[in-house]
């Protein structure tokens, strides 16, 4: 049976072909809630399935349908043991009546003795003449990158051995672009939230692994250009497909990418001089949260001295000598300070940061959802050095917790974030932004 994609959907939407085209993927009628024309098309589409034929007047399932449903739960598709059953001991088939599926590793697994009694059943692929330029960049949804984990590892091993020979030439880097991040899900949600591929790359040899987390469009373009030019690496770029603020001009982005980690003066108090607390953003949406946090602190607690640092190369703040890109202890202290509370708002799992730093750097590796967004860790950290903040901390945190509960209540009631949630943070005072900060798709 062969059916068109989106079979039964509207033939056209706003003059564009829908049924049978790529536009029928996922959510065909976007923003039907806001546009009457699309809402009418959605209603007509759903009504075409004639749900009234399946329901009685009291909206219960029609008796004729109920008679079809098996009374025995074991015969109901959704309640079979294959769906809900826990582990069961396998019923091993007759050892004389089996079929082995193995594309090319039968011999290496020492199963080739079966060829004394049987043969192969080849399924030939059609001839392909596809050729590329030898340099690739695969864009994959974050939650599915684990599928290519082993292939990425094998490529890195081949690249390592190739570099150890005199007759192998350089290889193009393998480039992966991670999008559809866990922080800005659309309709998929929990099933697609999985940043573990970052850890997979970090587990490679330091000479091969590169993880870049550019904070905006300009830094991303520079990062992509660098990765496509590179050789013999496994490059992972973590970015977002959602509209994001552009914090840095092209020249500023170039300087920032060369340093790979730098102080953002426009979001810091007195250009970051003598801070009470350091906020570090590592990731696109994550950096937005840090900038928003800095703006909130500027407004709510002007006496708190804040330094904002952004990291675009994940390896840079690592323990000295742990990676070719890691900075010295002195350089680390110059950017992140030697004795001030540091809150890392990081795109991946906190344990990855701990592994990079070897648990010896003086910092507080905090889950972004706990320190920056929810639990007021920036106030508690700043209060260690600033007596004025310590005096008002309880009142400040109580107000923050109250606002969080109101926001959560709003989201549950309206099924959307409050207005202004994604507006570019604005700063007032000496260190306010002196340039236009726009958005990029």
From TrEMBL:
**Mind listing the GO biological process terms from this record?**
carbohydrate metabolic process
Ranges where the Xylulose 5-phosphate/Fructose 6-phosphate phosphoketolase N-terminal domain occurs: 1-86
Give one GO molecular function term: aldehyde-lyase activity
Q: Provide this UniProt record's keywords sorted from A to Z.
A: Lyase, Thiamine pyrophosphate
- Cofactor requirement: thiamine diphosphate
Q: Does the keyword Lyase apply?
A: yes
Q: Where do the Xylulose 5-phosphate/Fructose 6-phosphate phosphoketolase C-terminal domain residues begin and end?
A: 241-356
Q: Which Gene3D superfamilies match?
A: 3.40.50.920, 3.40.50.970
Pfam families linked: XFP (PF03894), XFP_C (PF09363), XFP_N (PF09364)
**So what family is this one in?**
Belongs to the XFP family.
Looking up PANTHER family in the UniProt record yields: PHOSPHOKETOLASE-RELATED (PTHR31273:SF1)
What is the protein name for this chain? Phosphoketolase
Protein species of origin: Lasallia pustulata
